[in-house]
Write a structure and sequence with these properties.
By secondary structure, this protein is mainly α. 69% of the residues lie in helices and 7% in strands. A hairpin with a 6-residue loop joins strand 2 and strand 3.
Length: 522
């Protein structure tokens, strides 16, 4: 039995015993009537305990039944759900089986149809092969008949046809290429002219004044004797220390300093100026003054380089490159001062890069450094463009600057946008009127090379380089050169001049072909 049911029963029994004890005591002490009353109370307590135990028992039985019913309902629900899922799975499997069976049936039908189609196609192929063989026989007979009529074999006729088509295609391709080039040139030149003209208009330039000699002015001709010294020892000491030739002639109050190196001439000029103003001229003093002058000029070179990069707004340049920039002040190229040329190119590059939407500071940097290979500390076999690129790379310059320096004479491939800008600005600065002094022999030789290049082609009768070598007029023989050949000849000459010759600006090639018939009336 449940513990909760036993407790009230025990409680009732205890109460009854207590009641009996009390009744006996009262009975012994009191009257018999009280005994009966105690008996009634005890019976009442027992009845109450019994009724409570029955009630509790019934409640526990009802709770147990409810739990059993609930568990049974849950179990039945779970079993029903499982059965439903099993039924659904069986239905899906049956549907898949039906679908597979239908596909198998359709595939079997298609296989039968394909077999019939294959048989039909095989029959058609046999018919086509028969017709093809018949056609090839007819074609061979036709070719034999044509060969008999024309007197040529099929291979010879084919070769003649291919050759004629090839010549026609080349002529058309050349004319089309020329038209495309002219069209592209006309369109590109409009913007290019604007940018170049604006760049040139906004840049101030100097004319060439550099020479290979420097005239040193004297106060009187008496100083010439002191400079020459006893048995010419002073003049020999000066020439040995400076590497400059001193020419003392009958020119009044003047000595000529001759050297291809402007830096040496400047050292000699400053040393002579100090010696003359001091008055003490002897070999030991000459060596001392020349050494001091050389050191002073090195400081001046650094100062010129620093002032140049500050004026151009260039920052972060290596000290060695600053020194090289300063040395360019004492170098010249075709009579054009190298530093002035480099500054001019830098300004042109900055303007042109700004007009094109590029980085003007980077373009200025490359323009200033593009000719640093012309002032090397040591002699080398490399060209000045490649040497300048190596120097810039050695001192940590931007790869775009390095490529622009190395490629501005087309000795390496241009890899950045600013490279052609540097090349164009270099040509603008060097080719403008008055920029450089050109030797007459070189100019005449270029004119002769132009005419000889034109005369090397077959069918050319005469060739004239006119307009100071800016135009080449070629007269061809009308019997040997056709109109189509003249276009081809003009194009090939222009390409050959562009690849083989060096010249400022551009050269126009004009091919003239005319037919003349002359008769004399007597």
């Amino acid at each position: 039995m449940d513990s909760q049911l036993i407790i009230p029963i025990i409680t009732g029994i205890v109460a009854a015993l207590v009641g009996l004890g009390l009744g006996r005591l009262i009975f012994s002490k009191n009257t018999a009537s009280k005994l009966e009353e105690a008996q009634k109370q005890a019976n009442q307590l027992i009845a109450e305990a019994t009724s409570k135990s029955e009630t509790i028992k019934k409640e526990r039985m009802l709770e147990a039944k409810e739990k059993f019913v609930q568990l049974k309902a849950d179990h039945d629900k779970e079993v029903f759900e499982r059965n439903r899922k099993l039924n659904d799975s069986e239905n899906r499997i049956k549907q898949k089986e039906q679908t597979i069976n239908q596909k198998m049936e359709s595939l079997e039908k298609q296989g039968k149809e394909n077999d019939s189609i294959k048989e039909h196609l095989n029959r058609q192929i046999e018919i086509v092969n028969q017709k093809r063989s018949e056609l090839e026989k007819h074609q061979e007979e036709h070719i034999r008949k044509l060969e008999k009529i024309a007197g040529l074999s099929a291979e010879d006729a084919k070769a003649q046809l291919v050759e004629s088509l090839k010549q026609e295609a080349q002529t058309r391709a050349l004319s089309l290429q020329q038209e495309i080039i002219e069209d592209a040139r006309q369109k590109a030149n409009k913007e290019a002219r604007k940018i170049i003209i604006q760049s040139i208009q906004r840049t101030a330039a100097e004319q060439t004044i550099e020479n290979t000699v420097t005239v040193f002015q004297l106060e009187s001709d008496e100083i010439k004797g002191q400079i020459i010294g006893r048995e010419g020892r002073n003049i020999r000491a000066i020439e040995a220390a400076t590497g400059v030739d001193l020419i003392v002639d009958d020119t009044p109050e003047a000595i000529v300093l001759s050297s291809f190196d402007p830096l040496r001439r400047e050292i000699a000029r400053l040393a002579l100026q100090r010696l003359v103003s001091d008055g003490r001229i002897h070999p030991a003093r000459i060596e001392e003054v020349v050494e001091k002058t050389r050191k002073q000029l090195e400081e001046q070179v650094m100062e010129i380089g620093e002032r140049t990069i500050i004026e151009l707004g260039i920052h972060g340049l290596h000290k060695e490159l600053v020194r090289v920039v300063g040395k360019m002040r004492f170098r010249s190229s075709y009579g054009q001062n190298l530093l002035m040329h480099s500054r001019e190119v830098a300004n042109l590059c900055g303007i042109m890069a700004a007009e094109l939407g590029l980085n003007p500071k980077l373009a200025k940097r490359a323009g200033l450094l593009h000719d640093i290979g012309k002032v090397p500390d040591e002699e080398t076999e490399l060209s000045h463009a490649l040497l300048g690129g190596k120097l810039a790379e050695k001192y940590g310059e931007n790869p775009a600057v390095v490529n622009a320096i190395a490629a501005h004479h087309d000795e390496t491939e241009m890899q950045y946008v600013i490279s052609p800008i540097i090349q164009a600005c270099d040509a603008i600065s060097g080719a403008r009127p008055g920029a450089r002094r050109e030797i007459m022999q070189q100019y005449i030789q270029r004119i002769k090379d132009l005419e000889n290049l034109a005369l090397s082609y077959t069918g050319v009768e005469k060739a004239y380089a006119i307009q100071a070598g800016r135009e080449l007029r070629v007269i061809v023989e009308a019997d040997k050169v056709t109109d189509g050949d003249s276009e081809k000849l003009s194009f090939e000459m222009a390409q050959k001049i562009q690849t083989e010759m060096t010249y400022p600006g551009q050269i126009k090639v004009t091919v003239i072909r005319e037919k003349r018939t002359v008769n004399v009336a007597r």
